[in-house]
Design a protein that fits this description.
Protein name: Filamin
Largest sheet: 5 strands, antiparallel
CATH topology of the largest domain: Immunoglobulin-like
InterPro entries: Filamin, Filamin/ABP280_repeat-like, Filamin/ABP280_rpt, Ig-like_fold, Ig_E-set
CATH superfamily of the largest domain: Immunoglobulins
Number of domains: 2
Organism: Plectus sambesii
Keywords: Repeat
Structural class: mainly beta
Radius of gyration: 17 Å
Helix content: under 10%
Shape: globular
Family: Belongs to the filamin family.
Strand content: over 45%
Number of strands: 18
Distance between the termini: 22 Å
CATH class of the largest domain: Mainly Beta
Length: about 190
């Protein structure tokens, strides 16, 4: 099951301006394609920054896909593991960050921000829900010029796919309203 390219997320960096994580938005991963597996053998766990484990819910969509939902309890970097019959699905574990943010916060997430394979598409999503007016720009610098494609999902997110032509370290720059977003530039290691 190739999940690395099929994962989408509603919001991976979420929270409230006052740092109250109890008011943060739930994290929702959807459209995991599991047509050829027994969904009853699917298990998801989240390791919180304090190393405690938590259990997200898995919802069958009755169309060959499932949605994994999680309500964050603490700020920081979380690790989501999705296993089928005790084995990680491709792309698992997934890392996401929960932060206390104000309205207008723009975030990015996805495997294409940290790694890729030369000649193959790497993808990530930029979430600019409630960010207000401002242009979004994506630039990638590295050992060779990468082809970049952006698709407006019409829900406040933008799906970005890029193809690194050669192995090496690439830097993914994401700007909103001419300012680098949090953690940009992202360092992506590309294998040959």
């Amino acid at each position: 099951v190739d999940l690395a390219e099929r994962i989408k997320a509603e919001r991976l960096t979420s929270g409230a301006a006052n740092g109250d994580v109890s008011k943060s938005h739930p994290v929702a991963f959807w459209n995991f394609n599991f047509e050829d597996i027994d969904i009853r053998k699917l298990k998801a766990t989240v390791m919180m920054p304090n190393k405690k484990m938590d259990a997200p819910s898995i919802v069958e969509n009755h169309d060959g896909t499932v949605t994994v939902k999680y309500q964050p309890k603490v700020q920081g970097t979380h690790i989501l593991e999705i296993k089928h019959d005790q084995s990680h699905v491709q792309g698992s574990p997934f890392t996401f960050h929960v932060d206390a943010v104000s309205d207008g916060y723009v975030s990015a997430f996805g495997s294409g921000l940290s790694y890729g394979i030369a000649g193959e598409p790497a993808s990530f999503t930029v979430c600019a829900k409630e960010a207000g007016a401002g242009g979004l720009s994506v630039a990638i610098e590295g050992p060779a010029k990468a082809e970049i494609k952006c698709h407006d999902n019409k829900d406040g997110t933008c799906a970005v796919s890029w193809i690194p032509p050669a192995p090496g370290e690439y830097f993914v720059h994401i700007k909103f309203a001419d300012k680098e977003i949090h953690n940009s530039p992202f360092s992506a290691k590309v294998a040959g």
